[in-house]
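To close the chapter, one final illustration. This time we ask the reader to focus less on the individual chains and more on the assembly as a whole: which components sit near each other, and how the overall shape emerges from the parts.
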Amino acid sequence: MKLKKKIPLIDQHDQNGFWGGKFGGSFIPETLKKPVEDLTNEFKKLRKDKKFLKKRDFYFKNYIGTPTSFIKLNNLTNHLGGAQIWAKVVSEANGGAHKIYNATVHALICKAMGKKYIVGDTGAGYAGKMLSMAAKKFGLKCKIFMGAKDIKRQKPNCDAMRKNGAEIVPVYSGSQTLVDAVSECMRYWVSNCDNTHMCVGSTVGPNIFVKICGWSTAQISRELKDQLKSEFKKIPNKIKLINCVGGGSSAYGFWSEFIDYDRKQIELIGVEAGGPKKSKLHAAPLSRNAKIGILHGAASYLCQNNEGQINDTESISAGLDYPGVSPIHCFLKDTKRARYTHATDEDALNAHVMVTKYENLNPSLEPSHAFAEAIKIAPKLSKDTIIIVNSCGDAKKDRDILRERLGKR
Amino acid sequence: MTSLISQAFQNAKSENRPALLTYTVAGDNTKKKSLEILKSISNYADICELGFPHNTPIADGGQIQTSAYRAIKNGIKINDVFSIAKDFKKSKKTKPIILMGYYNMIFQYNENKFLDKCKKVKVDGLIVVDLPYPENKKFAAKCKKRGIIFIQLVSPTTSSVRLKKIIKDSHDMVYYISMLSTTGGKLKVSPKKILERYSRIKNQNKSKNIVIGFGITEKTIKSLKKADGLVVGSAICKEISNSIKKRQNPVTNVTNIVKRLKNKIK
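The assembled structure is written out below.
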């Protein structure tokens, strides 16, 4: 299994949609074959269409507000002593997280295909909130599928979705979290694929959805590359790009421009949700050696039992609380281009507390997992090492959880 | 040699009616009860589909989801599914049984091991919901090698080019999904329209047995009786749920439904 240079990772799959011969694919019911094929053809066309690209860039700039800033966290760096810690503040994007890139692109594709309805899944509520924003912006009717448990724990984002005119469909089956939301959303699409476009909220699902999402979030690393060059005159010699990984959309977006670099120069570190310290449950299929399985139309490392039933997951962060992971991250793991680890709920909370204490930055619980790893390794590294954390979400949505876990702040 | 599945269709044809196919979930609501249900309804059904339950069934509606969750909660394992099939075939030697489920379960069990086991317990056919054509070609060939019929699915969204290829590579039986829906949806397309599409498929190759499934209930079954076969699943699963709720014997209630379904297409 080998990575190819100069070809975007999203395009390094075989004709059946598998990366590295075994990750990804399109395990879908017959009914979805046609809509998936249509979407695949449309995307193939649009990504080469200058007009479409111009439109995308226009909305990225004027609607999403790119580029998001790249800042040095001086106080945190001084406090930890060791590597320099920087942040790419993707949470500055309109809506407060990277999910807006994928949502905007899907809304544009939906329009281009002449469909009036758009549906999507959400865990932390960001993917749903952003899709509802994009739907409103582009005049599409929007339904968001969300686990009943997540609706309770991510209320601020639910309020935002409703305000944008989207209908939230609560999902009561299974564990009532993201995994069930995605299943229910796919079921809805099976029944309504003739007039409805589906947006999968991360780089997961059937092959084409992995590609569209990765293509959208890749904007993050294009910006970062420019920002690195203007800050340091060239790409520095020792970089560590740390990103949380749930489905893996922000991590892929953060890394895509840097995958061709030698890993001694640019190390890619993905941090999964280790769950509560005392719990056996987690959402870390890559770093806790899960077996390959098929979920939501794709093969990936997967939290499952011997029989192939999908395991319950547990994480304080709804956005990472997913038993599978993107096939492209499985590919990066097996080719050893990226290293994957996990942080517990407690690690993430502590990291959140430390970052907010020293910096004017308010990372949500998802990137707090990435900060936990940065905080752990920074003291051991040299001062010329550049650690960059993708602060891909804002903690406003975590208000209730933070209050409950940390007391009044 | 003609397969038991083909024979079942021939029998129905000789009686001038479509074959009746039932779907129940193995282990719903217990291992023992599901075997009893299967044996009892097979007195009226021509072919029995037995689902191996998965906890993330992306193409199933509420009724079958409920049955699947119930079976898994009651501890059903894939080997139990095989033992139910084996017991069933012991007493109903000529009644075809089709296992139906999602690919991950087969993948975890190991494809070859799974198929060998199917052959050993005399499973007649297999439906894998999320292993579409052409990705399923290798798997279908492995089935054929073991004398197991792999059942291809066709839906209203299947293009005519694709339809031709699927029919060409299909075995004795093809499953036509009546409408854009998960299982158990309300029939939202007129029977006339469904039968029109059905004929288009049938005309590709008259020797293939084409069954229609999704949205078929006591109310709708009669209107589709021109088909080679008709599949009823969710209506049966729903009856099991209702029986449990009312503390009645699901075996009797489900058998009565299947009996009534059969009478409607005679």
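The interface with chain B takes residues 16, 25-35, 173-174, 179, 183, 186-187, 190-194, 291, 293-297, 304, 306-310 of chain A (CB under 8 Å). The two ends of chain A are 49 Å apart (CA to CA). With these observations in hand, you are ready for the problems at the end of the chapter.
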